[in-house]
């Protein structure tokens, strides 16, 4: 099956490739991609072929593209792939983001938010995609279905960031998430959401994890709200110092 898909992908038009992909169940296609990726056999070429035969201009093609994209993210996160294979798939996913319509970008971003809040990240490698998805969504001119209504791409991005910052973050990905946000264009209110969330996470980290987080927060604060970030960092260390002094007095 994979050889037939690759062969048809080499043709000038994608008509026969689309016909073949439409005849295959999405789950079977996703499993085929997973098997090839785990074996390290031409996974990038197969993924490229599936995207070529799944145009977003058709509903079936767009839904197939979304299903394969989400499975590819899970593969990158799984840790089951060779480093080179994971990097190739991630690179392809980055390029393909721009071909998605706004409605599917919302679904992709929402899936990421759920994965982060539910603690389902395995290695955090796929987080490289989230800034591109949010940035591309914000640039969409048309209104997009969100919840029970419609919002602009920019408003969708704001709602998603608000939801992400009000949910749970796994301790081991706080530094990565803080670093990720520096690559997303943010309004002043969104910068405040992120700054407040990161400052709340300080008390949940081990002491040795604090310096890299301070660094990432200071880099992020170049987007704005630097005074609040600095005050929060100083308050945290003052509390830590006070706690240490109390413990010392108790020992004496």
TrEMBL record:
<dbReference type="InterPro" id="IPR026171">
    <property type="entry name" value="FANCI"/>
</dbReference>
<feature type="domain" description="FANCI solenoid 1">
    <location>
        <begin position="64"/>
        <end position="249"/>
    </location>
</feature>
<dbReference type="Pfam" id="PF14674">
    <property type="entry name" value="FANCI_S1-cap"/>
</dbReference>
<dbReference type="InterPro" id="IPR029305">
    <property type="entry name" value="FANCI_S1-cap"/>
</dbReference>
<dbReference type="Pfam" id="PF14675">
    <property type="entry name" value="FANCI_S1"/>
</dbReference>
<protein>
    <recommendedName>
        <fullName>FA complementation group I</fullName>
    </recommendedName>
</protein>
<dbReference type="GO" id="GO:0070182">
    <property type="term" value="F:DNA polymerase binding"/>
</dbReference>
<dbReference type="InterPro" id="IPR029308">
    <property type="entry name" value="FANCI_S1"/>
</dbReference>
<feature type="domain" description="FANCI solenoid 1 cap">
    <location>
        <begin position="1"/>
        <end position="53"/>
    </location>
</feature>
<dbReference type="GO" id="GO:0006281">
    <property type="term" value="P:DNA repair"/>
</dbReference>
